[in-house]
UniProtKB/TrEMBL annotation:
GO function terms (MF aspect): transferase activity
Source taxon at top rank: Bacteria
InterPro entries assigned: Acyl_CoA_acyltransferase, Gcn5-rel_NAT, GNAT_YJDJ
Protein's name in the database: GNAT family N-acetyltransferase
PANTHER family tied to this protein: BSR4717 PROTEIN, PROTEIN NATD1
Keyword Glycoprotein tagged: no
Organism name: Maribacter cobaltidurans
Keyword set, alphabetical order: Transferase
Transmembrane segments: none
């Protein structure tokens, strides 16, 4: 699925428009850490891989910024279980099992 994400610091989320719907991941940034707290994909778009694509794009941006990830969102944690190579961004001491 091709779409571009934008960081919206005013709303504290990464967001994108997909098929005329807003999808987003909310976050809290504190110093060099980013806490991903909630992923939102409308029901009509579920099951199309949009949530996973969104998480991937956000992780790429987090890595580019050199931030440390604290995955509080269950969907993001599930993605990290499926793609363990991204665990390199996760704050040491956080167990994703």
């Amino acid at each position: 699925m091709q779409f571009n994400i934008t960081d919206n610091p005013a709303k504290k989320r990464y967001e994108a428009i997909v098929e005329d719907s807003l999808v987003f991941i909310e976050y809290i940034k504190a110093k060099e850490k980013i806490y991903l707290t909630h992923t939102e994909v409308p029901g009509a778009l579920e099951g199309k891989g949009i949530g996973s694509s969104l998480v991937l794009k956000v992780l790429e941006d987090i890595e580019k910024q050199g931030l440390t990830l604290v995955p509080l969102c269950p969907f993001v944690a599930m993605y990290l279980k499926k793609y363990p190579e991204w665990r390199r961004l996760v704050m040491k001491g956080i167990n994703i099992e």
